[in-house]
Amino acid sequence: QVQLVESGGGSVQAGGSLRLSCVASGYIYSSYCMAWFRQAPGKEREGVAVILSRGSTSYADSVKGRFTISKDNAKNTLYLQMNSLKPEDTAMYYCAVTRYFCGSKSPDRYNYWGQGTQVTVSS
């Protein structure tokens, strides 16, 4: 089992920045991959950023150039640096782990989820 705990959410004005963290514990194999998702009220959960086991990354078009995903393997911690935030970034943000589908942005491919951290961006 893998446990994930997110933190770092909050309320900011448009143009501001936040850094989300996700601490992972449990049986985490080096082949597992992690990602950040978000879900706004009334919308489907969407993949925001993924990071592969070798460190390559991929982003949703809506956040490219503004968000950066990174990982500290020694601390088993995943990060999402969010800059130039927009009101449309307002959502609950989740980190997730997939055992077999590294690089996927489909929520169905992920096996473990955190409880989420709320990000609210005001205009």
Describe what you observe in this structure.
The strands form 2 sheets. Strands 2, 4, 5, 6, 9, 10 and 11 form a 7-stranded mixed sheet that branches. The chain has a 4-stranded antiparallel sheet with strand order 1-3-8-7, with no helix packed on it. A hairpin with a 4-residue loop joins strand 7 (67-72) and strand 8. The model has no long low-confidence stretch (mean pLDDT 95). The protein has 123 residues and is an all-beta fold. It contains no helices and 11 strands. The N and C termini lie far apart (40 Å).
Mean pLDDT: 95
Beta-strand share of residues: over 45%
Question: What is the first-to-last residue Cα distance?
Answer: 40 Å
Give unreliable regions as ranges.
none
Q: What is the tally of helical segments? A: 0
Spell out the blueprint of helices and strands:
Blueprint: E1 2-7, E2 10-13, E3 18-26, E4 33-39, E5 46-51, E6 57-59, E7 67-72, E8 77-82, E9 91-98, E10 112-113, E11 117-122
Parallel strand pairs: 2-11
Antiparallel strand pairs: 1-3, 3-8, 4-5, 4-9, 5-6, 7-8, 9-10, 9-11
In short:
The chain is mostly beta strands and 123 residues long.
Descriptors:
7-stranded mixed sheet; 51% strand; 4-stranded antiparallel sheet; globular; 0% helix; 123 residues; mainly beta
